[in-house]
Model the fold of this input.
Amino acid sequence: MTRRKITNAVMFGLTGLCALLTISVLFFILGYLVYYGGRSLSWDFFTQLPAPPNEPGGGMANAIVGTGKLLLLTALIGVPIGFAAGVYLAEFGGRTFSSIVRYTADLLNGVPSIVIGIVAYALVVVPMKRFSLLAGAVALSIIVIPITIRTTEQFLRAVPHSLREAALALGARKWQTVATVVIPAAFRGVLTGTILGMARVAGETAPLLFTSFSNQFWNRGLDEPAATLPVMIFNYAISPYEEWRRQAWAAALVLLTLMLAANLAARLVLSPRGARHG
Amino acid sequence: MVDNLEIVREARPHAAAGPKLVVSGLNFYYGDKQVLHDISLAIPPNQITALIGPSGCGKSTFLRTLNRMHETIRNTRAEGQVLLDGEDIMAMDVVQLRRRVGMVFQRSNPFPKSIFDNVAYGLRVNGWMRKRPLAEAVEHSLRRAALWDEVKDLLHESAYKLSGGQQQRLCIARALAVDPEVLLLDEPCSALDPIATAKIEELMFSLKETCTLVIVTHNMQQAARVAEHTGFFLHGKLIEFNRTEVIFKRPRCKETEDYITGRFG
Done:
């Protein structure tokens, strides 16, 4: 009896400790970034172009805007494709073809992001003969598509069969049922999954190194290289200049804050309050 | 199997046409498993026909084949003939068929939309777009479902705000909006309290004028209360079909008698 009680207490303590460890990692990272990067955060950081080495001041305005443009373009390319494919899988797919697509999407999801960067390099950078924002967006789209496919499929499947039946019994065609009942009912979930998918690729660095590359100035078009926060962090963190390294910490803090905000937004979208009335 | 066409005519001599639905030799399979065996019966127009029987006897499956809802489930197959006003439903466009033969399900399944949008749904997918006629049709359907007075000020609220019984009547109103000739009800009251059940039964009586109703129920009192005709299903077979009072007072088959006297099921 006591032995069992002791075992219980020990196991309870161990699992609790691991749970605590998990959350403390996040807070440790946040604290560390605030400590090192907080000092370099200033108005200039958000409004100025990078300063040359060993010159004080300067900021990462171009990288912040660059990340924004890159993500927007990625969302425009990747999300519609992933969403449509997810709808197909959940609603229209035949068994064999669906399982092939599903399996391929899972494999694609597991491909290291640097490999995807190389693919985008070969597909876009080489023919265009230059690094470009577009190439970066293509790389990130390839990452986002399988995520979007799977979340879309998952949330569409979660829509109760009884709703589909109700629509079909009213004489709705299959595509009408999907478009007017199933997708609206799953919309919040799909949106949440999309936000989380975008938040995940927002921090991708490797696929951007030889696609969108980097830029000390403003990006002026889809066919030009662009500065982005992750690549800036990478370049600045390994630089020999004290000031740049501090700015890398600051950029990391900004990036992490953006991703946490996206996660929070996703949670709000999915919150049960008002969720029943789509 | 007692051929009931004669019974139908005898019950309603003034009925102009023949039966609304004629089923003959219907077999139904889930994969390799046969769940309906050679069902034949005729459903009279503008009356309520009840289908009773123990759980798993195939009565719901039978009901679903009448507007081909079984096709939404993979790996199902129906053989045999179902005629709607003499027209083979298996050869009809399924969407046309379902507009003529509506269905209300066991558990109310309103869309996560407003009350108005729920009722308007069937009309909108049929291409009704203009506001005035749509609003009039929605009001008319809600009145027919005896729900208008309760919801007329809540039309743009979520359908989920209604009580269970109101939701089920909303589902009936939604089905009525497309003006079906036949309304199939699959245990519509099984999740409802007696008061809500009484309201639905009252509603069914009022719908007979314009609709032919077929109700699956495992509540025998309900069948006795509402239906002119009752069919008794057991193990995928139609054991007996007759006027309700005959089924309940002088059943011809022993199984029917055993079931309605509560000896099993």
Summary: Residues 274-278 of chain A have pLDDT under 50 and may be disordered. The radius of gyration of chain A is 23 Å.
